[in-house]
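Internal ticket - ligand job 286, NAP:
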Amino acid sequence: MILVTGAAGKTGQAIIRGLHATGARVRALIRRPEQEGIVLAAGAHEALAGDMTLESTFDRALSGIRTIYHICPNMCAYEVEMGKLAIQWAKRHTVEHFVFHSVLHPQVRAMPHHWDKLLVEDMLFEAGLPYTILQPVAYMQNIMGSWNGIINEGKYHVPYPIDTRLGMVDLLDVAQAAAVVMTTPGHHGATYELCGNEILTPKQMASIMSDILEQEVAAVEERIVNWQQNARHTGMDEEVIKKLTAMFQYYATYGFWGNSNALRHLIGRDPATFADCVLRTKRVSA
Ligand SMILES: NC(=O)c1ccc[n+]([C@@H]2O[C@H](COP(=O)([O-])OP(=O)(O)OC[C@H]3O[C@@H](n4cnc5c(N)ncnc54)[C@H](OP(=O)(O)O)[C@@H]3O)[C@@H](O)[C@H]2O)c1
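stdout (structure tokens):
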């Protein structure tokens, strides 16, 4: 049985689907009992509700588990604490494989949510558990957050320059790679960067979307103060706004991209292109 934490989120559901396709049995750790339907629909065999800041949650969730796929909630203030508990209790339950869903370039200190993941990776090395670390770049599926503006206004707003160079990965490819790592031998001690083939600017992404959606889509740089104001109106936590601002400023200065070799090796084919993902999104939302 494989435990997937953070299971009802965007990543968790994709990972469960990827595992389900291989026939693996999954226990899903969710936060709220009402999320059970989401993870069962994705293919989990059972669900367990609990708060990942509590020791008792991991004690219950890890009983009878051979492999854990640990996903921390996005931009979480307790990433290091949750990682520490997951590792400690995995050791106590003599889990055979700890797979950590990290991020590309966790060593970038300027992005605090990356740095937190580096600290978890560090604890994992020291724990002496058989581990694998997956480091995905930003998901292509993040465009879903801007989908209404793209379709209704023909505008793709980004809070950094529209010529910023970005790598992206299809979350479905990440899920397939994760399933390979958990269901086939030979991945203990490995750290895999998971990136798609392309490095695109928002301007190029808008052009690809224009072609596929058969409507004009323009990339528009939104001033960071405007983005922050809008985020506050939606009730976003100030700490999360700070972390996302740091990330956008890093992107604006350096871009953010990596290499697709490891992903291609794991999934045995070329990773999906941005166009593939937009086409799929178009079909699903039609
Ligand atoms: N988005 C990207 O491009 C990208 C790229 C690389 C890596 N990542 C990493 O992927 C990870 C997952 O991101 P995501 O967007 O899929 O996460 P998410 O949507 O935030 O999902 C996390 C899940 O964890 C649950 N949760 C929150 N607090 C919890 C707690 N205290 N105890 C137990 N469960 C709790 C949430 O439940 P509620 O619904 O109740 O809040 C949610 O179902 C993050 O660590 C992120 O850094 C993301």
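Auto-summary: The domain at 2-139+168-196+257-271 is CATH 3.40.50.720 (Rossmann fold). The pocket of NAP is lined by residues 6, 8-12, 31-32, 51-53, 71-74, 101, 103, 113, 136, 138-139, 142 (CB under 6 Å).
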